[in-house]
Write a structure and sequence with these properties.
Elements: E1 3-7, E2 13-16, E3 20-24, E4 42-50, E5 55-61, E6 65-72, E7 75-79, E8 84-87, E9 91-96, E10 101-106, E11 114-121, E12 131-136, E13 147-152, E14 160-162, E15 167-173, E16 178-182, E17 188-196, E18 198-201, E19 204-207, E20 211-215, E21 219-224, E22 228-236
Parallel strand pairs: 13-14
Antiparallel strand pairs: 1-20, 2-3, 3-4, 4-11, 5-10, 6-9, 6-11, 7-8, 7-10, 9-12, 13-15, 15-22, 16-21, 17-20, 17-22, 18-19, 18-21
């Protein structure tokens, strides 16, 4: 029997710093819920809105896989590896923090907010050399199918690479359409976040920013009750 955990949008942690409005799916910063520390190796999903002319100053990370998905606006990224890049809608950025990096993120457009998800996953190995990658993903390639955004560096598959046996998918599922996804291996679970729209996942109804985590199952089914934008995280449930 599959195990499910439902996280409504309203149940997330929330902070309003003026320049930053953020919602935390899992415990982060000033939000702590002992029942919501992580889902398998999925440690953080922050739903951030950054006001124009503001951003995150230079700060460190280590031994974490960090994925940024921009929904609106342009977020400038600078890091200690020498990268300076803007991340825009339909682009995804990955960083393997490994032995340690410094980076900053800034919204230079004073007339437009940046909306993004930042995702952290525990890596499957510590002390790796830090790395960075970024790519544009065509929206037409995810209509009524799963588009692979992220996959394991050890697998010869599509998507940006991270040091974890995990996948991130995105789909724009049209009303009345459905997708079946078979998990890659026993011991994996799926965490499904409804970005926009309305959908049913293995019988669980989701509305905007609701999410459901499903483990001890072989597959999941996504059914669009309305046109929907959906993120699917397939992750190992066992944290090393």
């Amino acid at each position: 029997m599959a195990k499910t955990v439902f996280h409504s949008a309203a149940s997330r942690g929330h902070a309003d710093h003026g320049w930053l409005k953020t919602y935390h799916t899992f415990s982060f910063a000033g939000y702590h819920d002992p029942s919501r520390i992580h889902f398998g190796v999925l440690r953080v999903i922050n739903d951030d809105t950054v006001k124009g002319g503001f951003g995150f100053g230079k700060h460190p990370h280590d031994n974490m896989e960090i994925i940024t998905i921009v929904l609106k606006g342009a977020l400038e990224h600078k890091d200690s590896m020498g990268h300076t890049e803007a991340i825009r809608p339909n682009e995804v950025q990955v960083m393997s923090a490994g032995t340690g990096i410094l980076h900053s993120e800034y919204n230079h457009n004073k007339g437009e907010d940046v909306e993004l998800f930042q995702v952290w996953m525990f890596p499957d190995k510590h002390g790796v050399t830090p790395r960075y990658d970024q790519r544009v993903f065509a929206p037409e390639d995810r209509i009524n199918k799963l588009q692979t955004l992220v996959s394991s560096i050890d697998k010869d598959e599509e998507g940006l690479k991270i040091h974890q046996d995990a996948w991130i998918y995105r789909t724009e599922l049209k009303q009345g359409s459905s997708i079946q996804h078979k998990l890659h291996t026993a011991g994996h679970g799926a965490y499904v976040l409804l970005v926009e729209g309305s959908a049913t996942v293995n019988g669980q109804k989701l509305n905007r920013r609701d999410a459901v985590g499903i483990s001890e199952t072989d597959n999941i089914e996504l059914v669009a009750d309305a046109d929907s934008d959906i993120l699917v995280f397939e992750v190992p449930m066992n944290v090393q």
